Amino acid sequence: MFKGQIKQASLIFIVLSIVTGIIYPLFITGISQVFFPSQANGSLIYRNGKPAGSILIGQAFNDPKYFWGRISATSPVSFNAAASTGSNLGPTNPALIEAVKVRIKALKSADPNDKPIPVDLVTSSASGLDPHISLAAAYYQAPRIARLRGLSESTIKILIAKYTSGRLFGIIGEPVVNVLELNLALDAYKK
Prior knowledge:
Layout lengths: L1 H34 L1 H4 L3 E4 L2 E5 L39 H17 L21 E3 H15 L3 H10 L1 E2 L10 E3 H10 L3
Antiparallel strand pairs: 1-2, 3-5, 4-5
Helix pairs in contact: 4-5
């Protein structure tokens, strides 16, 4: 009887391993490749035949002629998808306060104005990988981008509008701008 139970348990283990470890993943991968090929392959954006990045993962843009995204909470490398996490720093944590002060100083240096700085430009998202900024954050940076690229602010605002995603189902969340798409559009823009 004991031998029969071991044989039966072993057979069930092998069958379930094949079904759940090989057949099911291949089936789901096949369906996703057929119906959602872009998403299944990382939602990559290509420029000149080479991947420029994913629309789902933020990138570090530090050059003042580009729009800056949210701060990445991942380390040791910014926007490291393998280390997706929030900072878990509370609003009174000295490390968070110092990081915000450093970012405010960088923004004030690049954008010397008296406008209030949108909070998403000085804090990280829950995942630390957010590729979007608010419309307020994009409009805050528009004068700098226009000045450094020799474009009108109205041209920059047209590009912001083009790369703005509205609310989910028209009611959930706020409109956001994908920083990578917007920066690539700036590089491709012909005066």
